Amino acid sequence: MGEEATNIVVGKIVDLLFSSAKREIDYVRNCTKNADILKNEAQKLKDMSDRIQQRINAAKENGEALLAGVQNWMDKADIEISKVEEFLEEEANAKKTCFNLRPCVNLSSLHHYSKMSINKTLFLLQHQEDGQTYESCVSIPTPTPRFVDLYQTKNLDDIDTHKLVLREIIEAIKDESIKMVGIYGSGGVGKTTLAKEVAAEVKNLFAEIVFITVSQTVDVKEIQKNVEKAAKRIIINKEKVLIILDDIWKKLVLSDVGIPCGNNHMNCKILLTSRSRNVCEGMNVDRNICVNILTKKEAWVLFKRIVETSTEETPYALLAFFFPHNAPWQFIKQLEAQSKINYLSGKWIGSMQT
């Protein structure tokens, strides 16, 4: 009985030793094969890295934030690919040296490189698996705001000049027979402010609201980029979209920038602002609305509201002196030399320049 047990134990030990010896021999025998597998997996990782880099480039162009970890994954992939290339070159040189000895006496070298090839291959496979997520998504899309949030919370109830115009614009936007509304008035009267207030008021009527500042130097490509997603929602999903084109200085051909218009307006409404009535009429708006200058009292109330201050330090009489056309930003520019209002002037001018 004891002898039988001993034989079983000895048999298991022999099997283990044989398996271990076979594994070590396989390392030597399959050195070239293992190196080829490593080279193949390194190329696969490089191809994956290139594809992900293309996605990263596209995301950056769209102003999207990259997912946490994607850049670290890319950096790690570059490092490991570089290490593998160096290793494979070293392994190839070692084999040349070894085989030139005839017969090879440096079996330990083959064993070493073969085993290292397997370990590195396993690491590359794991890194490829970790990167599969990034092949489909590398960024967090920057959502196009459903409405502009820069100024829409300012209360216009006690500013009759704006309140009446705001109501007229909203009624025009809600009118199904009207597809394009124009707002015009001299610089500084608050056209941009009103456009943003309109966006806040009608936000629930549209799947998306796009706000685009056109300005004197028209950047067609930038406008096309901003309009692209909205156009897809209009054409493919048949959703209602409001496109606000702010600060237009000359006639803009909407079809050139990808905005549905005319008989092909579909579900697209357009609100544009300009200093020139002629520009609005030249773009064939259905309703043209004039924004009159604020009274001096309204201008001062709105100024304090925008800069979020209740100060009465600036004499009201200065308003009449500094901006006869009731454009408060002109008044602020005159006072910009006073450091105590630099911050306030920046907020005001940024809000009321158009």
The level of helicity is 55-70%
Detail the poorly predicted runs: 13-18, 101-105, 144-151, 313-354
Category by helix and strand content: alpha/beta
In spatial order, strands of the major sheet run 4-5-6-3-7
What order do the helices and strands follow?
Answer: HHEHHEHEHEHEEHEHHHH
Largest sheet: 5 strands, parallel
Average pLDDT, rounded to a whole number, is: 73
The general outline is rod-shaped
What's the β-strand tally?
A: 7
The count of helical stretches stands at: 12
Distance between the termini: 103 Å
> What does the radius of gyration come to?
35 Å
Strand percentage lies at 5-15%
What does this structure look like?
It is a single chain. With 354 residues, the chain is α/β, with parallel strands linked by helices. It folds into three domains: 2-140; 160-290, 3-Layer(aba) Sandwich (Rossmann fold); 296-352. The protein is built from twelve helices and seven strands. It has helices at residues 2-29, 31-61, 70-99, 107-136, 160-174, 191-201, 220-235, 277-282, 296-306, 317-322, 328-334, 342-352, and strands spanning 65-66, 139-140, 180-184, 208-215, 241-248, 268-274, 287-290. The chain has a five-stranded parallel sheet, with helices on both faces. Strand 4, helix 7 (220-235) and strand 5 (241-248) form a beta-alpha-beta unit. It starts with a helix and ends with a helix. 29% of the residues are buried. Residues 13-18, 101-105, 144-151 and 313-354 have low confidence and may be disordered.
